[in-house]
Each structure stands twice: as structure tokens, then as C-alpha cells.
Automatic annotation (TrEMBL):
<comment type="similarity">
    <text>Belongs to the glycosyl hydrolase 13 family.</text>
</comment>
<feature type="binding site">
    <location>
        <begin position="307"/>
        <end position="311"/>
    </location>
    <ligand>
        <name>substrate</name>
    </ligand>
</feature>
<dbReference type="GO" id="GO:0005992">
    <property type="term" value="P:trehalose biosynthetic process"/>
</dbReference>
<keyword id="KW-0963">Cytoplasm</keyword>
<feature type="domain" description="Glycosyl hydrolase family 13 catalytic">
    <location>
        <begin position="101"/>
        <end position="445"/>
    </location>
</feature>
<dbReference type="InterPro" id="IPR012768">
    <property type="entry name" value="Trehalose_TreZ"/>
</dbReference>
<dbReference type="InterPro" id="IPR013783">
    <property type="entry name" value="Ig-like_fold"/>
</dbReference>
<dbReference type="InterPro" id="IPR014756">
    <property type="entry name" value="Ig_E-set"/>
</dbReference>
<feature type="active site" description="Nucleophile">
    <location>
        <position position="245"/>
    </location>
</feature>
<feature type="active site" description="Proton donor">
    <location>
        <position position="282"/>
    </location>
</feature>
<dbReference type="Pfam" id="PF00128">
    <property type="entry name" value="Alpha-amylase"/>
</dbReference>
<dbReference type="InterPro" id="IPR044901">
    <property type="entry name" value="Trehalose_TreZ_E-set_sf"/>
</dbReference>
<feature type="site" description="Transition state stabilizer">
    <location>
        <position position="376"/>
    </location>
</feature>
<keyword id="KW-0378">Hydrolase</keyword>
<comment type="pathway">
    <text>Glycan biosynthesis; trehalose biosynthesis.</text>
</comment>
<feature type="binding site">
    <location>
        <begin position="243"/>
        <end position="248"/>
    </location>
    <ligand>
        <name>substrate</name>
    </ligand>
</feature>
<protein>
    <recommendedName>
        <fullName>Malto-oligosyltrehalose trehalohydrolase</fullName>
        <ecNumber>3.2.1.141</ecNumber>
    </recommendedName>
</protein>
Amino acid sequence: MDEPFSVWAPQRSRVRLDVDGARHEMARDDRGWWHAEVPGAGPGSDYAFLLDDDETPLPDPRSLWQPQGVHGPSRRYEHRAYEWGDSAWTGRPVAGRVIYELHIGTFTPAGTFAGAAEKLDHLVDLGVDFVEVLPVNAFDGVAGWGYDGVLWGATHEPYGGPDGFKRFVDACHQRGLGVILDVVYNHLGPSGAYLDRFGPYFAGKNIWGPTLNLDGPESDEVRRYVIDNALGWLRDFHIDGLRLDAVHALVDTRATHLLEELAVAVEVLSTGLGRPLSLIAESDLNDPRHVTPRAAGGLGLDAQWCDDIHHSLHVALTGETSGYYADFEGALPTTLRSAFFHAGTWSSFRHRTHGRPVDPLTTPGHRFLAYLQNHDQIGNRATGDRLTATVSTARLLCGAALVFCSPYTPMLFMGEEWAASTPWQFFASFPDQELAEAVRTGRRREFAEHGWGESEVPDPMSPTTVEASTLDWSEPASGDHRSVLETYRALISLRRNHPELADPRLDRFIVQEIDGCLLLHRGSLRVAVNLGTGPATVPLRAKSVLLTSEAVTTGSDSLTLPPNTFAVAGL
């Protein structure tokens, strides 16, 4: 028997269902859900809803397939029809593993799930454990970052649709790679966001768009909408974890925060499926309670991005101190020791104190993701320039050594492993010309305030911006790109083969500054990184040097490193 159609529209007096051009009246229950049975309307049937006397069909807010885009009808999709090949995959926790962030549309010239799957052997050879995919849910247009999504359960059709995404996840699992999916629950995009026509989904705005009603009247179903969506990705697409975008923008005053409710639901699903499932937050709050277990009064998430580590690394490597980088001059040793630099301390960018300290005795470092680059920190620069547009590859490798040899969970952004020359710029492709021009003008105005000329800011609506941001896969085999790739492989292998380098105990992590050089104590290993302008001599009785980016001088009681050099030594 075909499944009935259902939609939540509690404030509508009439809802009709359009299935393949035929219209049917729907019946309302006492919870505001409307239902209708249409014999023969199985997988592949196109459908939409008409609200009250409006004759404009709207897609299903819980749509799983939008083959004609976010404004078109939804199409019924049957998850059980896909035959998975990953039965041997038992999953793995995120803690301390190496994560590789990528964007499907620019990871390969094809810009599809199938194209990305063809490069998975590169990631296996690199040694990463997880692929973190930028949002793949439906958004208006062909090209975009994915953060302007409006139908959270439908997979973006130009990438390959729902079956294409399953094949990609399947291919990852068959190669031993876990998959983390970036999801956005803090706002909806500006085009195709029809939720408010169905019910009281919205409760205000933030800088990105309308926000969800998480704590007002009739918010139970809105919260259920979020949780069901998250569980659907994990269960039906075999995803191993979710990265929750900008959770600080989730406005929820309830006693049980949405994030805690989600953590409980995911824990239940994980137990039922028999494999680890992880939740990773992006948060601007510097609040360790996000990753504190619920039994200890926290929200129970598994990990969170740590921008303070990025900012302190960026300033130490580049010397750039404008904007929010201003506070991080000389902050690298402190931040490496404690994850948060702003921990109840003054933030000049915010003009107030900010953050809360991490307790090194109770909070392991693996709960914080450390990175030199990510999609935000590159793409939100005016020209989308990568770190190697500012610093030498030798200095990049010093930064990589600090990330991979730290107590934190390392993450890298696609192409970083070979010092890709391609930028990663902001782009979108809204068909609505008025909206497209507004985005274009807003982007240029934003950077003009920081001294950038209009011609210097790439046109976000131009296909050439997408092309310029697409990785050049001829680079890894040549010159400096090849040597950087070899060093990244070696660092990841070293971390895997020497558990001391992944030890997450912050209370046992020592960072020293000696002669302009940082010295990390990692069990029986020492990681020396010289970011200074001259040679640095570290008093170190090394038995062996396991890895170095350049030749170092080993004395009986010392190690001398040229500038922009790192060395990992055993005592």
C-alpha cells in the first residue's frame, strides 16, 4: 500500500494535494497535520501542496527530492530502493581523527558526487579518517556554498540527487572513510524558503536570514522538523556525523536546549544502529558546555570547531592583525595549551569580555577541531586567498606540524595538503536577477569598507568565480605541491603510528617557548617548530629525529632548527 501524504499546516483552513497534476482534498487532524491517500502515487510521483485558496503549488517542507529545483514540485523517494554496499562499515568516533573538509561543487571540475568519488583514493592515500562535506541540501541555483539551503531533506539535484549522495557515502565507507555532513539549522536561504506559509516556523531574523521558532507557541513541531531531518541524514544516508553550522544563532530559551534534545536523539539512534554517530558544533560562544557531557551539566555534543586556535595560528604565521585577528598577536602558546584564548577575557573585536575557560582536567583536547584553514576563513576573505598566498610553503608546513601534533582533532580544507594555488571564493547562482544583484552589491560594499576596490572583489554570481575556485588536480604531482603533499602524508602517518601525538590530555600537554621556537611535549616525543627569523637552538637530548621539514643540526644535548622549520624528535 502506498504511504499517505502528510504536511503540517496548523493555521490553514484548507490544504489540497497536487499529485502529477491531479488535485485532492486533504483532511486535518487535531495536531494541525493534513493527510491524504492517493492510490498508485508511489516513488517517482511528483506532488505539491496548495494552501487555502492559493492556486500556487508549493513543495513539501520535508521533501526528499527536488529534481526541478526548490520552486518546483517534490518527488516521492523510497530510501529502501537503494542497495547499500557498506555492510562491513562499523563506523568510528570523531575523537582525535583527521578530518578533510570539501565542497562537492568545486572539489573536482565535474562538481558532482560522482566526480568527488573518483578522488577518494587520493584521500585514502593521504591518510585522513573522515570526509566533512559542505551542505548538500537543496538551494536555489546550480552553484553555491550550500549555506542558503531551503529544503533541508532534499539533496541538491545538480550534484547528483539523493541516489548520487548515497553512492558517494557508500564509496567512502568501502574505502574506510567516515562521512560528516554540514547542516544548517540557524537560518534559511533567501530564495525558496516557503516554510512560513505552512506554519509558525519562523521567529525572527539573524544576519543570514529568517530563524526558526524553537521556543514559541507551536514550536514542538518545528523542533521535531530539525531533529527528524538530522536523524534522517544519519539513518537513511548512513552519515557518520553532522557538523552543526553556527549554533550560537539558534535562539532557544527552553530549559532543554534544542542541541541537548538533538544529542539525546542521536545517542538513541546510535545505540539502535550499533555504530558511533557524532555531533560537531560550530559556535562563536567559546563555551565548553557545548562539549561537556550531559551527565556533567553540558549539552553533550562530541566536538566543536575552535576558531581561536585558527586565529592564533594565522597571526603567528602571517603577522596579520586586522579585524578579529587583533587580539591574537603572541597568543599561540596560550591558545595551544587551553583551546580558547578568549576564556572570560577581553575581546577588542566584540568590545566586551568573552568566553569561558576549558577545564584541562576534565575536558579532552579531542573535543576541539584545530585547523589552519577552512571554508569560512578562506572564502570570507575578499579574494578567497589561501594561506599560501601570504606565507611560504615552509611556513605552512610549520603550521601543519602544530595542528597534526596537537592534542586536538585536526582538520584540513581541500587542496591544503598540496598548497593549492586556486583560491576559494564566495559564489552563488540565484536565478532571480534582483536577488543576484543585491548579493553582488552587498558583497562589494562589505569589502569596500575594509579598503578593497570594487574590481578586486570577485563577482559572486559569475561562473568564472566558481571555475577559479575549483581545485586543479594536475598540481599535486609537481614541484613544491608534491613535496607539501608528501609532508602532509608523513605528518598524518606519524600521528597515526605514534599515539603520543594524539594524546588529548590537556593537563599533560606542555608548550614551551625557547629561543623563538615552540616546543610541544608529547609523551616521549618533542615537536619543535621555529617560526622565528633566525636559527633556534633547543636544549633537547634527542635519540632520533622522526620527521623534519628541513635539515636540522643535532648535538649531544641540543637541536638547532633553521627558520620556518619543524622537527619531531624522540627522546
